[in-house]
Structures are given as structure tokens and as C-alpha cells.
Write a sequence for this structure.
């Protein structure tokens, strides 16, 4: 085995002949198996805090915590990397405080890898509270008394108290500021700030901001800066953006701008276009993707990394993710008398110890229900990715996909976009092979 | 007083496992884990098993949190312990009211009591109540009793006593041997002896008039009981109208091999005078000598208004050998007072109440070989408001002396961040820490009493009473 230090110095010798590999200062990426039909691949991503096998799903802990799940519970599920958010942590508790605590890992007691998003998605989710110019994005805090944001959950008195004296009702997020915050947080990977609407202008601005991020990125030996491909749904812009950003020779690339409710028929084409124009020897991360079908299809299209709040958020509303049919709404009356676990063959603590009936009784009433269903949903996502990887290694990925889709859609009503997307990489769902 | 304190401490330090027929020892003083629908609030069982494995193996279930899943419990293969995931060897107590919640007044009727569930109120009659006891199979519970419309009105208290007497009679008969058919408000019919709680300890409320002098037969008629009489015969059963609720009317039959009443329940939360009056009407000879009286439960709601020491006259009426439980007095300073009176079991509502208010217990309950209790923190910092901005950039552990999972791995700043951002992990970590400390408190108490060091107990007790426990 090679130490992390040797890997980071690029002294690792590849043991898989002919497959793409990359060795950077703070990251190495080795493709270990390639599907002979699709663009799916299994890779080993070595980061300063852990080794991650891809394709990988990264649970989201926006505010330095996965809601209702202890870090050690995540570890028990086999999670090697999770996500936190730059913008929200920059507001509360603040980057300086996290840095004083020894970084995000120490602050939240998580010793595996962390990835931080730049705050770019908040330009969408908090668009009513933000304004953009060449310099950066000015956010009005969603936690302030003057905010109209629907997700301002604190009382006005609490907001004023928490913000008093700090002058943090607004934040100007420049590329440099984003990098500064992420550097202080100490994540293993982080992302350049990007811009969304008015697509072409936004794309070029994103490239300019990327250059500013690169200039501001100082901790190259311990942290990795990924670029985020923009261009909306315009294929020309996407190709141009890929070309420009690849020139910057960064350790990894994310496919952004696809979490705004786009049609899936457009979504998959953009994903496929990007993976076709990004280096094969570097990780590709599709941001904000978390539905099981999306994960499998995008893996077929060559994506390596995913994140989404969906599994944990839907858990808090009493929905469990399952192989057969996709999901169970445990709040439904039918589960009141169901004394089986969420899934018989799931090894998670929830399925080993609690019945659907009990979860029906407590979900949406007792906070512990959120934890229990979140544990199961994260286990589901991680196990799904594990199954994807295993099938790629055995070169049985197309068969896996067909079986998976049959279980998700027992009546055979596959979404058109998925059929098209899979067909584009050689998987024909209409044929049983 | 000294003698009583010594006797009280001696009793408080006993093992009650054998007395109650439990599969394991239960060294007292001890506590019943406060649960909601069987779970310690906020904590999944894997966290409890890994970080709180030393907690007392005793659990409190409250009717409001389990009523709604009663039908499922009845249908679940493996029964209540399987459904709620409660270990088979754990001591289980079922109470009608939640000691952490405010009592509701003016909601009970002649035939039903109100249970405040999360989905709203449910009116429960005796048939349903006894069904619940049967389904839950607790080791200790009590017959249904009424709450008065007003805690301060004498007529309301008398009316509540009459209702309780009726509920107890019906419950007693369902559990007992008399020929009777009862119809519940939902049309459910149960007959005599149809409730099987396996010989577990069911307590009767002193207001119910079920405990006292009698001849072994029961005569009379009632206007209030909603039952029909059995045909004429040697077991004819009717109930005498309770014109004076202070007159006991029912006595467990001498030839009742499975005693229906095995304990005394005293609700002091509404009126100590009310409780005392009923206690003093008991047949003291029967009560003090009866080996059938296994347990006694005292219910309080606000010990700040009713000091524990005022319970002395009540305690003096209880059998010396009975297991004594007190609920609603879980704060450490109340616990030491109750221990001095001989109470052995408490509800662990205090750590939960602290957690609900996002407070941290910050008191070192350990002691050295010399049994000296050096102040480890100023008394005004016995409980910390961890959401305060004071702790925003404090990277020390929650407490310096605790040693729990939270203090070993997280800082005050992080827990402050979780509380300020209202993250679910916040109360999870607080619950782990507060329970860990609370358990340490009880272990210290038990250890002190085991060593028979009354002076050290008093020293510890004085130290505890200097503190401000906030709630």
C-alpha cells in the first residue's frame, strides 16, 4: 500500500495498464475498470483524508452536520466523503471560527473527506436575496430580520440577536472570498464560483471567475480546486466552456447548472456532452443529482461523483428509498400494519431493528424517525453505488442497469429520457439481455 | 427525623429486582428511562447501545405516547417488546400521565379519562385502559384514575374521587373474579377476569377507595357504573353509590389468590391535602402488614410548589417493604430529598427537559476517596445555555470532567453552532451528554448509600442543593 504522502507527490505507480490516471499534489485518480459497452467506469480517488471509490454518492451536510446522523453512523454505512456548503458556513458559524477550530474536519468530528460547494447554487436558491456583477454576488442573509426568504426559519428576534454586532446582513461573495472561505474550512475538494442566468455572459464570467479562483488558491498541497462547467442547455457553450476550463488543467471538473428544474431530456444530453469533452483521467462530478435513476443513468454516461439533499430531506418527510418501486411513503395508512422492515435485504441498522409499522407510527412526529429513515436512505444510496461499481468491475453493468430499471418500474413504464440516455451508450431497455 | 432519614436511606439503597420478580438486579436509587413511543427522545438505539450502554435497564412508558399504536402492538408478532424494541429483561413501568407534560383539567368525564396524544385528545374508558395495560404487559402500572376539573375545588376533588372509585371498581373487576360484563364506549365488551397482566404489579389510586377495610363481599348499587349486573347468584356484584368518597368500599377478597391490587398510587400533584386525606383513611393495619402491597407510586407535578419534605406524612403511611416510585421529581435536588425519605425509583424526565430547552448539565457528580465534593464549577453554572453567544467560539468540551462521547469529541462551539442553526444533531448530542451525567448522578448516590456513609450523603446532598438546576 502506498501512503497518502507518496500519492500526493505523484510517486504512485499505476497497476492498471492502459487505463486513465492522474496524480496531482492533493489528489490522485486512477480508473480501475471500464464498462465495455457504456461510458461507466470505476475509479479510485485518493484525497488527503480518505480513498474514495467512484462512482460515489456524497451525502450533504450543509451546515457541518448531516441532519440527524452522527459522523460515526455515516462511517458505519461506509461513507468516505460528504459535502458541506461554503456560503452557509461562511454565514454561520463563519470561516474564521471554523479555521480556529482546526478546520471543518475537526469542528464536526469527521476525519474522512469533505467537499465544499462554492456557494454558486445559492445564487439560484437565494436568487431573491442576491444580486450579481462582475465583482461577485451580493447575498442578503436569509437569516436576517429583513430577509423575505421563505427559508428564514428563525424568529426576527433571534436573527437580530445572532447577527447583532457582526454586520453580516449582507455578504459579497467574490471568487476570492469563496476560495478564502473554503481554504479556511479545509475541505479536500472545493469548487470555483460560477454564474447562472443569461447563459453565455454567465459562462464567460464563470471562466473569468475560475481564473481568479486559481490565483487565490494557495493551499494546493492539501486542497483541490475543481472547475464547474457552465453553459446552460446550449451545446456550443458547454463545449466551449469545457475546452476553456480543461485548459486550466485542474484536478477535477463538475458539471453545474443542471439543478434548476431542467427537462430531463435536456439534462442527460448536457451530461453526456460534458463527459465526452472532459478529460478521461480526472473525476467528473454531476452536481445536485441524487435520484436513483439519475445516478445509474449518469454513471452510464461517464459521471463519477454525485451529491444531493434528496435522500435525507425526503427521509424527514417519512419517505424511504427502496429497490422495488423506488420509494415508500411510510406515512401512508397501509404501512400501519406492515411488520416487515423497509427492505428485507438491507443491512442498515434501521432495517435490522425496526418495522415499517413502527416507523409509520413515529415518522413526522418523533425526531428519532428522521434519523432512522435518513440512515436507511443513505445506506440505500451508498449500496446502490456499490452495486454499480461491482457490476462495472465484472463488466456486467448493462445487465445491472436493466435489472435495476425493472425493479424501479415494475410495470415497465420507463421514463423516456432514461430510455434515450441509456440507448445513447448502448443499453437498450426494450431487450432482455 | 434522623432515624427516619437513616431508615429512608437504607431503604433507598436496596435492590428491588428480587422484590419485583425482575430477571436482574436493580440497584437503587435508580431511574426509569423517559421514553416516547418506546424510544429515548432523539436517540437511535445504536447510539444508546454504543455510548450509553451503562444506563439503567428500566423504562417508563407513558400512555399518551403509546396509545396511538396500541392496535399495532396487539397485532405485532412478538408483542409490545418486539414492536417497541424493548429488551425482554428490562423493567417496564406504564403510567397514565406523562410526568414531563402539564396536566389537563376539566376534560375527564364520568366514564372516561382524557389522554393527550400528539394527534389530539382521546377519551379513554376503563375497558380500553385495561386493554392497554394488557397489551403493554408492564411490570408495574396502575388502575385508571380521574383528574378533577379544578385542582383547588373541594367539590371537584370529591367528584374526581367518585369517578376514580368507579374506574377502579371496573378495572378491578375486569382483572378479578366477579361475574360482570362491561361495555366500553366503542362497543367493546369485556367480561370478568378477561384481563391478564400476568400477575404484574397494578397499583390502585388511594382516591379510588379500593384499598381499605372490608368483609370480602361487595354489596350495593350504583347510578354511575355503565355496566349491567350479572344474574342472581353467589357472585352477584354491584357497587355502592359513593356518597362519601372518603369511605373505602372495596377490599381485595381474602381468597383472591391473584391479588388485583398490589400497590398504592398517590397523586399529590393536584392537592397534597386530597392525597393525605385518602391516605389517612386507609386501613393502616392492612396496609402496613400486607405483603401484597409490592409498590407505591407518588405523583408530583411541581416540587417547587410542593416541597418533597411535605410528603413525609404520606410516606409514613406506606408499607415499609414496598418499592417506592416518585414521578415528577427528577431534578437532582428533588431526588436527594426524596431519597432521604426512602424513595427508590424516579423518572428520568430531567435530562429530557434540559435537552428540550437546549441546556447542558455541567456538574461533576464524582467524588474522591475522601468523599469530599470540591466545587468543580460555580453553582450558577450548574446548567449552561449552550446556545448563548458566550460559547460561539469556545473550543473546550461541553464539560471538563464528564468523559461522555460528546465531551470527548465535540466542542462547545460546535454544539452552539448546532443549537443556533436548529440542527437535529444538536439535541441528539445534548441528550447523550445530559443522560450520561444524570446516570453518573444516580451511580454516585447509589455508591454513597451502599457505603452506608450518611454523613457523606448529607454532604453530597447539601452540595447538590446549592446548585441551580434551572428547570
Amino acid at each position: 500500500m502506498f501512503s497518502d504522502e507518496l500519492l500526493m507527490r505523484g510517486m504512485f505507480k499505476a497497476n492498471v495498464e492502459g487505463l486513465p490516471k492522474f496524480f496531482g499534489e492533493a489528489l490522485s485518480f486512477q480508473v480501475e475498470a471500464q464498462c465495455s459497452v457504456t461510458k461507466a467506469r470505476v475509479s479510485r480517488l485518493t484525497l488527503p483524508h480518505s480513498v474514495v471509490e467512484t462512482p460515489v454518492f456524497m451525502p450533504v451536510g450543509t451546515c457541518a452536520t448531516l441532519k440527524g446522523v452522527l459522523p460515526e453512523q455515516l462511517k458505519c454505512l461506509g461513507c468516505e466523503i460528504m459535502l458541506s456548503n461554503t456560503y452557509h458556513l461562511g454565514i454561520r458559524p463563519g470561516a474564521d471560527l471554523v479555521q480556529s477550530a482546526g478546520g471543518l474536519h475537526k469542528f464536526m468530528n469527521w476525519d474522512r473527506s469533505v467537499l465544499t460547494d462554492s456557494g454558486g447554487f445559492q445564487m439560484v436558491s437565494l436568487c431573491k436575496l442576491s444580486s450579481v456583477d462582475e465583482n461577485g454576488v451580493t447575498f442578503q442573509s436569509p437569516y436576517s430580520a429583513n430577509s423575505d426568504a421563505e427559508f428564514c426559519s428563525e424568529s426576527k428576534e433571534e436573527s437580530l440577536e445572532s447577527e447583532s454586532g457582526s454586520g453580516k446582513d449582507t455578504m459579497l461573495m467574490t471568487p476570492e472570498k469563496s476560495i478564502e472561505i473554503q481554504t479556511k474550512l479545509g475541505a479536500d475538494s472545493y469548487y470555483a464560483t460560477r454564474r447562472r442566468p443569461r447563459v453565455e455572459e454567465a459562462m464567460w464570467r464563470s471562466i473569468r471567475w475560475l481564473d481568479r479562483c486559481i490565483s487565490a488558491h494557495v493551499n494546493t498541497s492539501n486542497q483541490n480546486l475543481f472547475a464547474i462547467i457552465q453553459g446552460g442547455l446550449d451545446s456550443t457553450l458547454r463545449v466551449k466552456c469545457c475546452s476553456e476550463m480543461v485548459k486550466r488543467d485542474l484536478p477535477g471538473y463538475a458539471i453545474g447548472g443542471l439543478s434548476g428544474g431542467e427537462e430531463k431530456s435536456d439534462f442527460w444530453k448536457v451530461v453526456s456532452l460534458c463527459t465526452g469533452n472532459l478529460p478521461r483521467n480526472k473525476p467528473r462530478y454531476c452536481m445536485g443529482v441524487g435520484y436513483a435513476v439519475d445516478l445509474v443513468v449518469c454513471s452510464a454516461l461517464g459521471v463519477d461523483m454525485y451529491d444531493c439533499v434528496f435522500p435525507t430531506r425526503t427521509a424527514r418527510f417519512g419517505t424511504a428509498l427502496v429497490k422495488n418501486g423506488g420509494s415508500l411513503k411510510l406515512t401512508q395508512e397501509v404501512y400501519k400494519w406492515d411488520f416487515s422492515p423497509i427492505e428485507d435485504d438491507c443491512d442498515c441498522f434501521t432495517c435490522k431493528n425496526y418495522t415499517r409499522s413502527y416507523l409509520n407510527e413515529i415518522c413526522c412526529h418523533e425526531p428519532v424517525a428522521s434519523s432512522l429513515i435518513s440512515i436507511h436512505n443513505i445506506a440505500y444510496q451508498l449500496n446502490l453505488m456499490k452495486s454499480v461499481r461491482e457490476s462495472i468491475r465484472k463488466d456486467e453493468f448493462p445487465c445491472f442497469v436493466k435489472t435495476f430499471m425493472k425493479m424501479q418500474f415494475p410495470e415497465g413504464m420507463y421514463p423516456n429520457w432514461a430510455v434515450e440516455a441509456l440507448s445513447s451508450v448502448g443499453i437498450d431497455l426494450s431487450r432482455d439481455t | 427525623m434522623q432515624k427516619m432519614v437513616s431508615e429512608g436511606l437504607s431503604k433507598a439503597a436496596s435492590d428491588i429486582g428480587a422484590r419485583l420478580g425482575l430477571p436482574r438486579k436493580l440497584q437503587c436509587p435508580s431511574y426509569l428511562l423517559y421514553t416516547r413511543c418506546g424510544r429515548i427522545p432523539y436517540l437511535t438505539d445504536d447510539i444508546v447501545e454504543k455510548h450509553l450502554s451503562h444506563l439503567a435497564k428500566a423504562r417508563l412508558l407513558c400512555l399518551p405516547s403509546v396509545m396511538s399504536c396500541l392496535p399495532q402492538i396487539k397485532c405485532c408478532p412478538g408483542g409490545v417488546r418486539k414492536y417497541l424494541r424493548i429488551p425482554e429483561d428490562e423493567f417496564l413501568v406504564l403510567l397514565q400521565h406523562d410526568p414531563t407534560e402539564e396536566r389537563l383539567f376539566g376534560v375527564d368525564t364520568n366514564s372516561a379519562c382524557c389522554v393527550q396524544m400528539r394527534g389530539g385528545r382521546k377519551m379513554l374508558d376503563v375497558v380500553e385502559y385495561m386493554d392497554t395495560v394488557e397489551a403493554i404487559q408492564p411490570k408495574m402500572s396502575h388502575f385508571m384514575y380521574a383528574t378533577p376539573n379544578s385542582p383547588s375545588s373541594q367539590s371537584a376533588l370529591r367528584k374526581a374521587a367518585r369517578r376514580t372509585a368507579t374506574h377502579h371498581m371496573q378495572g378491578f373487576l375486569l382483572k378479578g373474579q366477579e361475574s360482570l360484563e362491561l361495555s366500553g364506549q366503542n362497543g367493546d365488551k369485556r367480561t370478568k377476569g378477561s384481563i391478564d397482566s400476568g400477575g404484574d404489579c397494578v397499583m390502585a389510586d388511594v382516591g379510588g377507595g379500593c384499598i381499605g377495610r372490608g368483609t370480602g363481599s361487595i354489596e350495593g348499587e350504583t347510578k354511575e357504573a355503565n355496566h349491567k349486573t350479572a344474574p342472581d347468584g353467589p357472585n352477584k356484584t354491584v357497587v355502592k353509590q359513593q356518597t362519601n368518597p372518603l369511605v373505602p368500599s372495596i377490599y381485595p377478597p381474602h381468597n383472591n389468590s391473584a391479588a388485583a391490587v398490589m400497590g398504592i398510587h398517590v397523586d399529590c400533584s393536584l392537592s397534597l391535602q386530597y392525597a393525605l386525606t385518602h391516605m389517612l383513611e386507609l386501613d393502616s393495619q392492612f396496609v402496613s402488614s400486607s405483603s401484597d402491597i409490592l409498590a407505591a407510586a407518588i405523583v408530583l407535578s411541581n416540587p417547587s410548589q410542593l416541597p418533597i419534605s411535605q410528603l413525609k406524612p404520606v410516606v409514613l403511611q406506606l408499607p415499609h417493604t414496598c418499592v417506592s416510585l416518585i414521578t415528577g421529581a427528577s431534578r437532582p435536588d428533588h431526588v436527594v430529598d426524596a431519597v432521604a425519605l426512602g424513595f427508590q425509583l424516579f423518572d428520568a424526565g430531567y435530562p429530557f427537559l434540559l435537552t428540550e430547552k437546549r441546556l447542558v448539565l455541567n456538574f461533576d457528580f464524582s467524588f474522591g476517596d475522601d468523599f469530599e465534593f470540591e466545587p468543580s464549577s460555580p453553582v450558577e453554572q450548574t446548567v449552561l445555555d449552550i446556545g448563548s453567544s458566550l460559547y460561539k467560539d469556545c473550543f473546550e468540551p461541553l464539560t471538563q470532567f464528564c468523559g461522555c462521547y460528546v465531551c470527548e469529541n465535540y466542542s462547545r462551539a460546535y454544539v452552539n453552532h448546532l443549537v443556533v442553526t436548529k440542527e437535529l444533531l444538536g439535541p441528539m448530542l445534548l441528550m447523550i451528554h445530559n443522560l450520561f451525567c444524570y446516570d453518573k448522578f444516580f451511580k454516585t448516590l447509589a455508591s454513597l448509600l451502599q457505603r452506608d456513609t450518611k454523613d457523606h450523603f448529607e454532604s453530597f446532598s447539601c452540595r447538590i442543593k446549592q446548585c441551580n438546576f434551572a428547570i
Remarks:
- The longest strand of chain A covers residues 28-34.
